[in-house]
Design brief:
This protein is mainly β and 617 residues long. Among the domains are: 138 residues, Alpha-Beta Horseshoe (Leucine-rich repeat, LRR (right-handed beta-alpha superhelix)); 91 residues, Ribonuclease Inhibitor (Leucine-rich repeat, LRR (right-handed beta-alpha superhelix)); 121 residues, Alpha-Beta Horseshoe (Leucine-rich repeat, LRR (right-handed beta-alpha superhelix)); 77 residues, no CATH class. 5% of the residues lie in helices and 16% in strands. It contains four helices and 32 strands. The longest helix is centred in the first third of the chain and has 15 residues. The protein starts with a helix and ends in a 20-residue tail after the last strand. Bound molecules: 2-acetamido-2-deoxy-beta-D-glucopyranose (5 copies). The site of one 2-acetamido-2-deoxy-beta-D-glucopyranose has 3 residues, from loops.
Length: 617
């Protein structure tokens, strides 16, 4: 009984959220479904309650004394006639109504919350909500409603939130929302609307959030959003818009978030967003933009996030973003920008994340990123720089991550990363780097992670890693290294993770392992190593050795004794969460120490060779 009450109090707590329009994520479309059959036998405080509707559960709130009636998923085909008159919240979702007649709730004049979602509704009588003077929250989403009588909300003048999403509305009567000046949330998403009545929203003076996503809107009339002076969030994602004209968003001074992704927008008129003083978030991704006019973003002085990914933008003009002095995140990924000239990012003094992934960028210049004084992350993955311009990142003193993987690089020159003393992570994997010039990384004193996997490095010189005194992770997997001289690792006194798998290493010297005082993880898988280490440092807690040509003679005995003592350091296998398609499947990673010689133990795992094999050692 106590648990039951707690559960209900908890769910009531979530419905109370609905009343607060200031609460950011308050979108009341996903109400929890209750499927409790039992009725509370007694009021908690001993009061006598009105009889509950047959087949429903009634709960009176301990504090507010409001009555909530739960009739979800009861297979009702009609609204029960015995619902207590004092009911404040009524849950009728998941029933089988098809249509509702006039005055279906007439006597429930105290009702504030009514949930009719997922109830197979196709049509509503124009007077169905007659008498619901107090109704504030109405859920009609996930039905099959094709049209609504123009007068249907005349009986509910105090509506604050209305969810009509996921129906089949193809048109809306001009007067449908007339007089609903208390409404703050209107969700019309995922219907089949191709046109909206031009003055249909004009009475919604209090509206804060309007969802029109997932419809077929191809055109927005100039008057459509006028009067929505309180609107904070407008979602037009996934429509058929082709052009954004300059007069549509003119009178939306409080709008903070505008979603225009997944349309077919080819053109955004110059000055289209002028006057949107409060806009913080603008999403134009997955459209067909090929050109940005240099006045496109004029006036967006509060913009924090601008998403332009998955368009066909071919180049950027200097000054395009000059008004966006508070922009923190700019995403231009998956476009067709080949070259970045100087001053293209001018004015973006607060930018923290610049995403230019997958543009096949070939050209950038020394001044390209100038002025990005707060830039922390730059993503250039999928570019095609053959060589990186010298000092291209110069002056970016706050930069802490550079993503240059899959970027056709063939060498790293001594000037590429000059001056980046605060850089922490440098991603250079999946290039064709065969040359690391002497002291290429010398100024990267703060670098913690260097990823050079899958390149064409054949050797590392003793000067390569100069300066990397804080490096923690060094990933060299998938190169052509034959050896790694201890001197090359000498600067890396902080290194704890070294991945040398999938190289051509023939030997690994005792000194190479011991020169790194903090080494915890060493991966030597898939090389051509023969001799097992004679001893390994105490710091090491994982060593990977499979896929080599181990010689299991007397020289291997000390090592064998070691792993039989400390099997956790050289685990036979480890279960890991897989990456890729099925992210939650466990994959087994083996760490076999398969002997290649002598012949008598060929193919056996060192751990499984009996001690008689080492008897004469
Ligand atoms: C509703 O009808 C379905 C199908 O006939 C049935 O499985 C389910 O138990 C019924 N639910 C209630 C609450 O009667
Ligand atoms: C952009 O398009 C690419 C390739 O078509 C796709 O893989 C990627 O998921 C898309 N990204 C976004 C953010 O839509
Ligand atoms: C590396 O170079 C080879 C041939 O020179 C080319 O086929 C391959 O695509 C290049 N790989 C990358 C990641 O640039
Ligand atoms: C490897 O080097 C360490 C530290 O210099 C030393 O203690 C250990 O005996 C060496 N092991 C072999 C087999 O040379
Ligand atoms: C590693 O050993 C396991 C058994 O422990 C075996 O199933 C697996 O085939 C071996 N893998 C290789 C590459 O030898």
């Amino acid at each position: 009984m106590n648990h039951f009450l707690l559960l209900l109090l908890y769910t009531l707590g979530t419905s109370a959220v609905l009343a607060d329009p200031n609460k950011e994520e308050a979108r009341p479309s996903e109400q929890p479904r209750l499927s409790v059959d039992s009725k509370p036998s007694e009021e908690p405080n001993g009061q006598k309650s009105e009889p509950c509707s047959k087949g429903c559960s009634c709960i009176q709130d301990d504090y507010s004394l409001e009555l909530n009636v739960y009739c979800s998923t009861r297979n009702f085909t009609q609204v029960p006639s015995d619902i207590p008159l004092s009911t404040r919240s009524l849950w009728l979702d998941g029933n089988l109504f098809t249509n509702l007649p006039a005055a279906a709730f007439e006597k429930l004049s105290n009702l504030e919350f009514l949930n009719l979602q997922s109830s197979l509704l196709v049509s509503l009588d124009g007077h169905v909500f007659r008498g619901l003077n107090s109704l504030a929250h109405l859920h009609l989403e996930r039905n099959n409603i094709r049209s609504l009588p123009g007068i249907v909300f005349q009986g509910t003048p105090n509506l604050a939130s209305l969810s009509l999403n996921n129906n089949q509305l193809s048109r809306i009567d001009d007067k449908l929302f007339a007089g609903l000046s208390h409404m703050w949330l209107l969700n019309l998403g995922w219907n089949s609307l191709s046109v909206l009545p031009e003055t249909g929203f004009q009475d919604l003076h209090g509206l804060r959030e309007l969802v029109l996503a997932g419809n077929r809107l191809a055109y927005l009339q100039p008057q459509l959003f006028q009067g929505l002076s309180e609107l904070k969030e407008l979602d037009l994602t996934g429509n058929y818009l082709k052009v954004i004209k300059a007069n549509v968003f003119l009178k939306l001074p409080k709008l903070q978030k505008l979603y225009l992704a997944q349309n077919q927008i080819v053109t955004v008129a110059p000055r289209a967003f002028v006057g949107m003083k409060s806009l913080r978030w603008l999403d134009l991704s997955k459209n067909r933009l090929s050109v940005l006019h240099d006045e496109t973003f004029l006036g967006l002085h509060s913009l924090h996030v601008l998403r332009l990914s998955n368009n066909s933008i071919g180049s950027l003009r200097p000054g395009t973003f000059r008004d966006l002095q508070y922009l923190e995140e700019l995403c231009l990924c998956h476009n067709q920008i080949r070259a970045l000239g100087v001053r293209v990012f001018e004015g973006l003094g607060h930018l923290e994340v610049l995403n230019l992934e997958n543009n096949r960028l070939q050209e950038a210049r020394m001044g390209t990123f100038m002025g990005l004084n707060h830039l922390a992350v730059i993503k250039l993955t999928g570019s095609c720089f053959h060589s990186l311009p010298d000092q291209v990142f110069k002056g970016l003193s706050k930069l802490h991550s550079i993503h240059l993987d899959r970027s056709c690089l063939t060498k790293v020159s001594a000037q590429s990363f000059g001056g980046l003393t605060g850089l922490r992570r440098l991603f250079l994997q999946h290039n064709n780097i065969s040359v690391l010039e002497r002291q290429s990384f010398v100024e990267l004193q703060g670098l913690q992670q260097l990823d050079l996997r899958f390149n064409r490095l054949t050797s590392i010189s003793s000067h390569t890693f100069y300066g990397l005194k804080n490096l923690d992770y060094l990933l060299l997997s998938g190169n052509l290294l034959r050896n790694l001289p201890a001197e090359a690792l000498l600067p890396l006194q902080h290194l704890s993770w070294l991945d040398l798998s999938e190289n051509r290493m023939e030997f690994i010297l005792n000194a190479t392992i011991y020169i790194l005082p903090r080494l915890r993880y060493l991966n030597l898988k898939d090389n051509v190593l023969i001799n097992l280490p004679a001893s390994i440092p105490d710091t090491l807690d994982q060593l990977w050795l499979s896929g080599n040509n181990w010689k299991c003679d007397c020289s291997a005995k000390p090592f064998r004794d070691f792993i039989l003592q400390k099997p956790q350091v050289v685990p036979l296998q480890v279960e890991m969460l897989g990456e890729g398609e099925e992210p939650h499947t466990l994959v087994t990673i083996y760490n076999n120490i398969t002997c290649a010689s002598p012949l008598s133990v060929f193919g056996l795992d060192l751990r499984n060779i009996g001690s008689e094999h080492f008897r004469d050692c």
